[in-house]
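Hey, I was hoping to borrow your eyes for a little while. For a while now I've been wondering how a particular protein folds. The fold is given in discrete form, as structure tokens running alongside the sequence. Could you read through the record and tell me how the tokens relate to the sequence? Take your time with it, there's no hurry, and the full record follows here:
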Amino acid sequence: METETMTIETPQRLPTKGGTITFSFRVNASFLNDSVSTSKRKYHYPVTIPIDYNGRLDEFPDLRNRRIAIIGPDGSEFKGRLQYSHSSTGPYYQITISSSNFCDTARQFKLGEIINVTVNFEGNYVVVTLNAA
């Protein structure tokens, strides 16, 4: 009886998907009101990502409702979430911040001020950076 030898090659690691989205966000009342809120909600300071980016984010369904890292203008780090939801106008993505110490950072922004938001994602890791425009 002959024995057959098989060679199994280790598959190459697939490149990790990733990308960057950058957009301007006008600081609104719902963002600022959370900086003085005593609400018991777990996630605060909503930053809605423009729907123009939905298609790009939809390419990575594993990012939906994922915990993320957020870096403030002074380099401080906060915890948050990339929320995916639906409203009467359709699906949307929103960045929310869960760190209670973000309150002081939020107060640095003024109503109507434009801030730059950069969302970097690599695999399942997401980092959002907030900077003055």
Observations:
- Residues 19-132 form a domain with the At1g16640 B3 domain fold (CATH 2.40.330.10).
- The first strand starts at residue 18 and ends at 26.
- The helical segments are 29-33, 54-58, 102-106.
- The chain has one domain: 19-132.
